[in-house]
Amino acid sequence: MFCEKAMELVRELHRAPEGQLPAFNEDGLRQVLEEMKALYEQNQSDVNEVKSGGQSDLIPTIKFRHCSLLRNRRCAVAYLYDRLLRIRALRWEYGSVLPNALRFHMSAEEMEWFNRYKKSLATYMRSLGGDEGLDITQDMKPPKSLYIEVRCLKDYGEFEVDDGTSVLLKKNSQHFLPRWKCEQLVRQGILEHVLS
Amino acid sequence: MTEELDLTGQDSDAGSEEVVLTPAELIERLEQAWMNEKFAPELLESKSEIVECVMEQLDHMEENLRRAKKGDLKVSIHRMEMERIRYVLSSYLRCRLMKIEKFFPHILEKEKTPHEGELSSLSPEELVFAKQYMANTETYLKNVALKHMPPNLQTVDLLRSVPKPDLDSYVFLRVKERQENILVEPETDEQRDYVIDLEEGSQHLIRYKTIAPLVASGAVQLI
């Protein structure tokens, strides 16, 4: 049946839970495009036959193929667009530098889209007034307290706090640090908020 | 509170309003704009003057804190306040960006035709962001898929494919200014439209479309 491959692409994304980005199915997309090409060429020749010979019993087949073409396009564009939305969410979750595991799942063009999105977002945030603008990817949750207890999960090195003193973040060390400084590190998995 | 730190009332000299707002009033306006934006299904009017003033306010507070004595208890309290304000402001701007990204073809289409007396729903920077987002996405789809498709299928009408905001969704609101004779349209064919009055201070659950202009004018507050 036509559009099988296109449906498979959509199902693949439907199965992946929100926030997860499966590997880019280049093969699948290529097959959908090839099927579209074949359907279109068949339609072209049939349309010519109808125009010259007047064989109107080909018309239902032409219409059917056209519907399959539209469905293929809809599934393909839905697949690509949904992936873009997931990639966009990655910028808000992980920051500007994506973990390597995720980068391997993205195609080169998706990476380009991501870079352009990053840049556009950065320009917008910088324009928000003040000297450096406002980083709205921070402060994702309402602040509960000024300082939080954090435990270091991985070796990170020196970390500078507001009044100039620096803290050495070694694995398993615990610190009492200002919340707004740690937020990004907590999201990246380097620090862990200790709730005792 | 902020008066104690030697902060005089800020003028909102940005924008066409010539109202002098105290810092407390400014933050209240920010919170109202934030709640309205969170609960409205569509993108609301851009409140850039409030954003600018709040940013200025935060800068002033930061300055004052830097000059203040270290270890003073007031410093912690004011820092907490700054954090809270920054959270509300960031959340407000994030909410707007999300709606812009979600409904970008419709929002940009609306911007093309200027309406008389209606303020733009996008700040100039948001407009730039929206246009870049649209161009970025269109170019991507064209290069990866559309240009490899048969010639008569190479353009996708984004206005038809991207869903519009659901203006019929229900919202909670509190009435700030008394309204009379609001026409409520029927949902099904069996119902008829009827007229209601909104008393000041009352709370309602109503379709957004019915009261959309009241949100814009400030007569009701979404909660």
From TrEMBL, chain A:
<dbReference type="GO" id="GO:1902983">
    <property type="term" value="P:DNA strand elongation involved in mitotic DNA replication"/>
</dbReference>
<comment type="function">
    <text>Required for correct functioning of the GINS complex, a complex that plays an essential role in the initiation of DNA replication, and progression of DNA replication forks. GINS complex is a core component of CDC45-MCM-GINS (CMG) helicase, the molecular machine that unwinds template DNA during replication, and around which the replisome is built.</text>
</comment>
<dbReference type="InterPro" id="IPR036224">
    <property type="entry name" value="GINS_bundle-like_dom_sf"/>
</dbReference>
<comment type="subunit">
    <text>Component of the GINS complex which is a heterotetramer of GINS1, GINS2, GINS3 and GINS4. Forms a stable subcomplex with GINS4. GINS complex interacts with DNA primase in vitro. Component of the CMG helicase complex, a hexameric ring of related MCM2-7 subunits stabilized by CDC45 and the tetrameric GINS complex.</text>
</comment>
<feature type="domain" description="DNA replication complex GINS protein PSF1 C-terminal">
    <location>
        <begin position="144"/>
        <end position="195"/>
    </location>
</feature>
<dbReference type="Pfam" id="PF24997">
    <property type="entry name" value="PSF1_C"/>
</dbReference>
<keyword id="KW-0539">Nucleus</keyword>
<keyword id="KW-0158">Chromosome</keyword>
<comment type="similarity">
    <text>Belongs to the GINS1/PSF1 family.</text>
</comment>
<dbReference type="InterPro" id="IPR021151">
    <property type="entry name" value="GINS_A"/>
</dbReference>
<feature type="domain" description="GINS subunit">
    <location>
        <begin position="43"/>
        <end position="128"/>
    </location>
</feature>
<protein>
    <recommendedName>
        <fullName>DNA replication complex GINS protein PSF1</fullName>
    </recommendedName>
</protein>
<dbReference type="InterPro" id="IPR005339">
    <property type="entry name" value="GINS_Psf1"/>
</dbReference>
<dbReference type="GO" id="GO:0000811">
    <property type="term" value="C:GINS complex"/>
</dbReference>
<keyword id="KW-0235">DNA replication</keyword>
<dbReference type="Pfam" id="PF05916">
    <property type="entry name" value="Sld5"/>
</dbReference>
<dbReference type="InterPro" id="IPR056783">
    <property type="entry name" value="PSF1_C"/>
</dbReference>
UniProtKB/TrEMBL annotation, chain B:
<feature type="domain" description="DNA replication complex GINS protein SLD5 C-terminal">
    <location>
        <begin position="165"/>
        <end position="223"/>
    </location>
</feature>
<feature type="domain" description="GINS subunit">
    <location>
        <begin position="73"/>
        <end position="144"/>
    </location>
</feature>
<dbReference type="InterPro" id="IPR021151">
    <property type="entry name" value="GINS_A"/>
</dbReference>
<protein>
    <recommendedName>
        <fullName>DNA replication complex GINS protein SLD5</fullName>
    </recommendedName>
</protein>
<dbReference type="InterPro" id="IPR031633">
    <property type="entry name" value="SLD5_C"/>
</dbReference>
<dbReference type="InterPro" id="IPR038749">
    <property type="entry name" value="Sld5_GINS_A"/>
</dbReference>
<dbReference type="Pfam" id="PF16922">
    <property type="entry name" value="SLD5_C"/>
</dbReference>
<keyword id="KW-0235">DNA replication</keyword>
<dbReference type="InterPro" id="IPR036224">
    <property type="entry name" value="GINS_bundle-like_dom_sf"/>
</dbReference>
<dbReference type="GO" id="GO:0006261">
    <property type="term" value="P:DNA-templated DNA replication"/>
</dbReference>
<keyword id="KW-0175">Coiled coil</keyword>
<keyword id="KW-0539">Nucleus</keyword>
<comment type="similarity">
    <text>Belongs to the GINS4/SLD5 family.</text>
</comment>
<dbReference type="Pfam" id="PF05916">
    <property type="entry name" value="Sld5"/>
</dbReference>
<dbReference type="InterPro" id="IPR008591">
    <property type="entry name" value="GINS_Sld5"/>
</dbReference>
<dbReference type="GO" id="GO:0000727">
    <property type="term" value="P:double-strand break repair via break-induced replication"/>
</dbReference>
<keyword id="KW-0158">Chromosome</keyword>
<comment type="function">
    <text>Required for initiation of chromosomal DNA replication. Core component of CDC45-MCM-GINS (CMG) helicase, the molecular machine that unwinds template DNA during replication, and around which the replisome is built.</text>
</comment>
<dbReference type="GO" id="GO:0000811">
    <property type="term" value="C:GINS complex"/>
</dbReference>
<feature type="coiled-coil region">
    <location>
        <begin position="44"/>
        <end position="71"/>
    </location>
</feature>
